[in-house]
Amino acid sequence: MSSEGSPAGRPRDASEAAGLRIVILAARFNERVTDRLVEGALEALRAHGAADTDIETIRVPGAWELPQAAVRAVETGRFNAVVTLGCVIRGETPHFDYVCQEASLGLGAVARSAKIPVAFGVLTTDTLEQALARAGDGPHNKGYEAVMAVLEMVSVFRRLEAD
Predict the structure, then answer these.
(1) Residue 23 CB: number of other CB atoms within 10 A?
(2) What does the alpha-carbon distance between residue 45 and residue 16 come to, in Å, rounded to a whole number?
(3) Which among 51, 117, 149, 155 could bridge 7 via Cys, Cβ 3.0 to 4.6 Å?
(4) What per-residue confidence (pLDDT) applies to 16?
């Protein structure tokens, strides 16, 4: 598992998330893994100054539904950023390929059209063991990493919008 270039490894301002309204959209499917991704995301937000009252966690059935929920979250205008978390583990049929492709293409389309950052934190693994390895503690947790990416993008958007 590579973490080279990960936004989680970069030094950040401890108050970077203060005052931001963040929604975490998390799939319930493979909940053993996604619960850990949510924990990692919350850890990163709190470590960077987010108040619990500024974080909303909403569950969707699975990775397939994440793009729909992300569109709606962006449209509400209530949030400064969206973090999407999910886990798709390869099975014996091509279903894995279809779900992964549509989740990634759908979230990519949302991110390209959104006026706020949308982070992709969907694991696509061959085994449960691989998924759990990516949902460990601290900065090696892909939920933590997705938050760090979205915080960096909030900063990038602000710089791009500055006069």
Answers:
(1) 25
(2) 9
(3) 149
(4) 86
pTM of the predicted structure, to 2 decimals: 0.92
What residue segments make up the domains of the chain, in order of their start?
20-161
Helix pair angle (142-161, 31-47), 10° resolution? 50
The rounded distance, in Å, linking the Cα atoms of 107 and 27 is: 13
Do the Cβ atoms of 25 and 56 come closer than 8 Å?
no
Q: Which residues sit opposite 57 in a β-bridge?
A: 24
Please give the single-letter amino acid code of residue 90. Answer: R
Q: What is the Cα–Cα distance from 105 to 130, expressed in whole angstroms?
A: 22
Instruction: Please give the CATH topology (third level) of the domain spanning 20-161.
Output: Rossmann fold (3.40.50)
Known catalytic residue at 95: yes
Q: Given the residues 95, 101, 113, 138, select the one marked as catalytic.
A: 95
Q: What is the pLDDT of residues 93-137, one digit of tens each?
A: 899 999 999 999 999 999 999 999 999 999 999 999 999 999 999
